[in-house]
Automatic annotation (TrEMBL):
Name of the protein in its database record: DNA-directed RNA polymerase RpoA/D/Rpb3-type domain-containing protein
Pfam families recorded: RNA_pol_L
One BP term from GO: transcription by RNA polymerase II
PANTHER family: DNA-DIRECTED RNA POLYMERASE, DNA-DIRECTED RNA POLYMERASE II SUBUNIT RPB3
Alphabetic keyword roster: DNA-directed RNA polymerase, Transcription
Gene Ontology terms for molecular function: DNA-directed RNA polymerase activity; protein dimerization activity
Organism of provenance: Rubroshorea leprosula
GO cellular component: RNA polymerase II, core complex
Keyword Transcription: yes
Amino acid sequence: MYEPEIYINEDMMETLTLEEKTSLVESSPTKVFDIDPNTQQVVVVDPEVYTYDGEVLKKLEAMGKPGLIEIHAKEDSFIFTVESTGAIKASQLLLNAIEVLKQKLDAVRLSEDTVKADDQFGELGAHTRGGRSVLSRT
């Protein structure tokens, strides 16, 4: 899952009552937001648990405050979670997963090279990959 970037428009947030802020925080099924006890402002406490469910944004629409919070996926950063049952350590699971991912990427790369070879060499590409060749003798 992509890592979320969460922006709160502080000027718009000032227009909400404490009750509205509480309702907004509670609208999130995951505890991404909370109210700072000192400033009474809505703050992002754990962006990594955001599940892109849209509930907070729907709540803001219903409150007539679209744009108060903006959430965008960072497409150059993602959250990768590894959980273990205990049979294998999480660190070993991660290393195994990386090895499998490398193998799959190699397969994709080879597949891409094969397509390029087919485009470049036509029928010859199939023969070099073990395809059947029919030669006519004259």
